[in-house]
Design a protein that fits this description.
By secondary structure, the protein is an alpha/beta fold. It is built from 20 helices and 12 strands. The protein has 3 domains: about 130 residues, N-utilizing Substance Protein B Homolog, Chain A; about 55 residues, Alpha-Beta Plaits, CATH 3.30.70.1170; about 200 residues, 3-Layer(aba) Sandwich (Rossmann fold). The relative contact order is 0.09. The structure holds S-adenosylmethionine.
């Protein structure tokens, strides 16, 4: 087996057996992969997780031992092989089978290697029939298998977006997420950085909505570039950048970021404020704060103070102190399935309900810290209305001194910005699914 494929198998084992997050395991393991193979390595790992229900359905059609009962080595090798056969260039199918078999043989398990050989050869022979059989499943089961989404989530999205839109929604959330970066306006302008990229053969363009954003079209190892090391840019999704653009914190003000780690929105705010004033960046997990400290150094920012604090607990020392607040609350993450595909299998309806109280509590505390005339953004990376507009409306119902603020001067093409909030969807805007509301203390 090619060394990068062995690495894919090893990474997948960590994700399936140890239940580790794909983005964290990938960013650790990718360091040992040859530069030429990194893009394919990432695509393969994420691809297997993304298409897991499809892949397991195929395997279970052709194997008497079901995937639930298989030992990890065998299961992971089969999953990767089926992914390659159905979703990657299929001209190497025979090689995929022989390398998968060899991998299990090398582990000393001859019996299992024969089993892998039998299952994969059968799948290869009946590829077309299997796809036809899938198409004849009852509609909701078919959608669930074809796009790999639990029935519960499909039901939720059919209600939200309509039955006629559902395939578009499912497929957009399976698409590869674009690589977006935020220009550090303290050090360079967006056009100057684009010019440098252009000279270096990095294909990039301006983001459509985020004024500080660049979309990189050919995959590169951004964090290894000289420009990254010099702090000229950071990796941040366009949706996430928009929270800062919409809040637009003024120079010399006090900003409180209630849930700050790993720091993307605090760092953006600091750049927007030209490193003036003060930003209090808090997160409940002390271990995550070091990332903010590291990034501050790289970007040349020193107006950020990172500290551990539970945002659901009121801090009496901050009452009516802040000019601006960022409440980027923990959420179900249903808007970033493209980047963390396991989210679609892991979120139960009960968990989603549980998080609502935390979100409302954090927003209520944030409101207490805001001065009269101050502004805050409430944001999530989910498309779930209950965690978004419903929370904001519930808050406004009980807090009469606050109102949604029109920010249509800060963003184009989002009619709701006039009403004080936007809902971003991968299937509509090609960006991560996000919700951003701007609330003013009257
Ligand atoms: C959506 S992430 C924040 C991302 C960050 N704003 C950024 O742009 O990089 C939510 C954060 O909330 C933190 N968190 C969860 N519960 C919290 C609580 N009760 N108090 C403060 N932070 C909390 C999590 O550790 C997580 O880092």
């Amino acid at each position: 087996m090619d060394s990068y494929r062995i690495k894919v198998v090893e990474t997948l084992k960590k994700i399936f057996k140890d239940k580790s997050y794909s983005n964290i395991v990938i960013s650790n393991d990718i360091r040992n992969i040859d530069l030429r193979h990194q893009a394919l390595y990432r695509k393969s790992v994420l691809g297997v997780v993304e298409h897991l229900m499809f892949i397991d359905w195929i395997i279970n059609q052709m194997s008497n031992t079901k995937t639930k009962k298989m030992e990890t080595d065998v299961l992971v090798v089969l999953r990767l092989a089926v992914y390659q056969m159905f979703f990657l260039d299929n001209s190497y199918e025979n090689m995929v089978v022989s390398e998968s078999v060899q991998y299990i043989k090398d582990k000393g398990n001859i019996r299992a290697s024969k089993f892998v050989n039998g299952v994969l050869r059968n799948i290869l022979r009946q590829k077309k029939e299997l796809l036809e059989k899938m198409e004849h499943l009852p509609r909701e089961e078919y959608l669930s298998v074809k796009y790999s989404y639990p029935a519960e989530l499909i039901k939720r999205w059919q209600l939200q977006f309509g039955k006629n839109k559902i395939e578009e929604v499912l497929s957009a959330n399976n698409a590869e997420a674009p690589l977006e970066i935020r220009v550090n306006n303290m050090k360079i302008s967006r056009d100057e950085l684009l010019k440098i990229f252009n000279e270096k053969g990095i294909i990039a363009e301006r983001c459509k909505y985020a004024h500080k954003g660049i979309r990189i079209l050919n995959p590169i190892e951004t964090d290894k570039t000289e420009e990254y090391k010099k702090g000229l840019f950071s990796i941040q999704s366009e949706s996430s950048m928009l929270a800062g653009q919409i809040l637009n914190p003024a120079e010399d003000s006090l900003v409180i970021d209630m849930c700050a780690a790993p720091g993307g929105k605090s760092l953006n705010a600091s750049e927007i404020m030209n490193n003036t004033g003060k930003i209090l960046s808090r997160d409940i997990y002390p271990g995550k704060l070091s990332l903010i400290e590291k990034e501050k150094q790289r970007l040349g920012l020193n107006n950020i103070k990172a500290e551990a604090y539970d945002a659901t607990v009121t801090d009496e020392t901050l009452i009516e102190k802040a000019d601006f607040i960022i409440a980027d609350v923990p959420c179900s993450g249903l808007g970033i399935i493209r980047r963390k595909p396991e989210i679609k299998y892991n979120r139960t309806e009960a968990e989603i309900k549980e998080i609502l109280n935390i979100q409302l509590k954090i927003l209520e505390n944030a409101a207490k810290y805001l001065k009269r005339g101050g502004m805050m953004v409430y944001s999530t990376c989910t498309t779930n209305k209950e965690e978004n507009l419903d929370i904001v409306m519930e808050f406004l119902k009980h807090n009469k001194g606050f109102a949604l603020e029109d920010f249509s001067d800060k963003i184009n093409d989002f009619p709701d910005a006039k009403k004080g909030y936007i809902e971003i969807y991968p299937h509509v805007h090609g960006m991560d699914g996000f919700f951003i509301a701007k609330i003013k203390r009257l």
